[in-house]
Design brief:
Layout: H1 2-8, H2 25-72, E1 108-114, H3 119-130, E2 134-140, E3 145-146, E4 153-154, E5 157-163, H4 166-178, E6 182-184, H5 190-247, E7 250-251, E8 258-259, H6 269-283, H7 311-320, H8 331-345, H9 349-364, H10 369-372, H11 377-384, H12 386-403, H13 420-425, H14 431-436, H15 468-493, H16 495-501, H17 506-536, H18 548-557, H19 571-602, H20 634-639, H21 651-675, H22 678-696, H23 707-742
Antiparallel strand pairs: 1-5, 1-6, 2-5, 3-4, 7-8
Helix pairs in contact: 1-5, 2-5, 3-4, 7-8, 8-12, 8-22, 8-23, 9-12, 15-17, 15-21, 15-22, 16-17, 17-19, 17-21, 19-21, 22-23
Length: 743
Amino acid sequence: FLQQELRDAGRVLGPCPDSPRAPLAREALRVQEQSEQLAQELREVSRNRASLRGRLRELRQYLHVLREGQRFTSLPAPLGSPPRPRALSEREPILDPSLHQHLDRKINFVAGVIHPWRVSAFERLLWRACRGYLVASFVEMPEPMEDPATGESITWVIFLISYWGEQIGQKIRKISDCFHCHVYPYPESEASRADTMSGLHSQIQDLSVVLEETEQYLAQVLDKVVLVLPTWRVQVQKMKAIYLVLNQCSFDVTEKCLIAEVWCPVRDLTQVQDALRQGSYKSGSSVECFVQRIPTSESPPTLIRTNKFTAGFQSIVDAYGVASYQEVNPAPYAIITFPFIFAIMFGDVGHGLLMFLFALWMVLYENSPSLRQASNEIWLTFFEGRYLILLMGAFSIYTGFIYNECFSKATVIFPSAWSVATMANHSSWSSAYLATHPSLTLDPNVTGVFQGPYPFGIDPIWSLATNHLNFLNSFKMKMSVVLGVVHMGFGVLLGVFNHVHFQQRHRLVLELLPEMVFLLALFGYLVFLIFYKWVKFSVADSMVAPSILIHFIDMFLFTSNADNLPLYRGQVPVQTVLVVLALASVPVLLLGTPLYLCCRRRAPRTGRPAPVAAGEQEPLLEGQEAGNSVNATKEDVESGGHDPNSEHLDFAEIFMHQAIHTIEYCLGCVSNTASYLRLWALSLAHAQLSEVLWTMVMRNGFVRLSYVGGVVLVPTFAAFAVLTVAILLVMEGLSAFLHALQL
């Protein structure tokens, strides 16, 4: 309630200046009493203010009704004054004053205000119900007023209805009630109206003074709330946290103390003991709390300590699954692999620099309260991943230098390795030849035309070539396959640490080895073919270089293609042996571990574990079985955990688990290798979209090299900057981020 009142008053509740301790029971009662007193005081003041505002609004509406009605029902001019021309106006009197003496019946009035949305329906219903035996006038109120139902400021409509007969008057009042009109008494004589208006003026002034004092008193009460509420919130949250933990505890046998069974990191046991000792001392307890380590067969939960730098990467890994206790945590490796995979699809020096500077600004001002306490959920997502965005921008700058692209334009950091002058000197490029051939071919077989590889990245001369896209297609497609196979192989090798740590050395031979054989015999061989072709075939014999794709297809078909020359001697037998090894590794992976565990189960045991003392098996709590957790269910105990001595007794369950793992791994190798081609696709898409944006927008600003061109360049650059940020940085960046998540 207090927070809602502050929010309604437009007050901002600041953070707690200090960290108060959790209050004792006596202090909690005092906080409760003070908060209830403040809430009651706020309710009364708010109720009085609302009542005063409503009364003041009604008086002002009544005053406006009388003022506007005075213009409609004004008395005739005195004798001897010049006649006033009649005009069709809403401000003119309803009845001609000269007709008063001819009327035998008394004229009555109904006056009030109505919502502007209901005027047309109200007027139409009056006409139909009273059959025209009335005269109604409507005029807007000079000043807007608050609608008590919605709180919005609207311009009310004043109506004045004159009628003859009591029955017509009853109908008008009923219709007014149905339309929620505010009807006010309208005095008959002008003197009475003047007296009423003067009385209303004095009442409005008095109410305004009282309302102002009420507002000041309410502001004082709200100041008190703003001063004490942050501290109360922290204290209440700490109390709720304490009682939440206490409610999870269990009573001992004597039901005089509480026992809590928790998982605690070993290196934090000293801190837990100190905290319990201090809590016992401050609470004045005669019995000191103590900690005792309990042996258990349950698998402990996984605790991964993070900081502000690693938290973003750890959250990405946890989104796919949390590693079991003492398993290898892939998050440290993801700090490098994830931004690098993103940068392959987002390689551009300019775009990466903008992303890097944006993340650097968030990192430098990360302690700013305005950034941390923002209410926009999208902004908070960006802010929490500021270090992730920082590395993504830095790696994008690196891959941008590899691709030699800065806002789709190449940069000449080093001299080009291609010599156009040498080609011109060794060719018959005449003036007529140059006039008829808009594109010229540089032949690397000519001595001196190609002087060796570019020192770093792509040669800038490729940005001028017409076959630029074909060259990048081949380069990025092979690069995606190579990086994908290396990434998958690294992930498989991480399992070595798990197998060694949990003393499951049989899995090194029966699982890890078949997995590596299957991966390297097929897709590792594909990577070998890519590098072998790059090394063996030079510029001179590049025209007769065979197709790797056709060789890879023939490898699975156990055949050869006469039109596609072999890369090396004895290629077909080698490929046949590799496919056979890959196929033979599948049944080993499928049946190796289940058969080994089955044989190990049936083998006679050479020794038995020593019996445990009876005292160690006594339950701590009443009705608790030995070895069970205080708060654990039967299913939790039966699930077990990572225990090198624990054995699964159900062979069907082991086989089913291994079969799922085998199918998932074999299909995943094929599908993931193809999935890594998205690196090639997204990288080309980003480069082409950046080039289109430069060609369609920014290049138009360089058409005229004059003062007019300089003026045109300003809005052109503004449009280019907005589209770059909106499309290439936000949309393309989000797309590359999602694809990097999938990889």
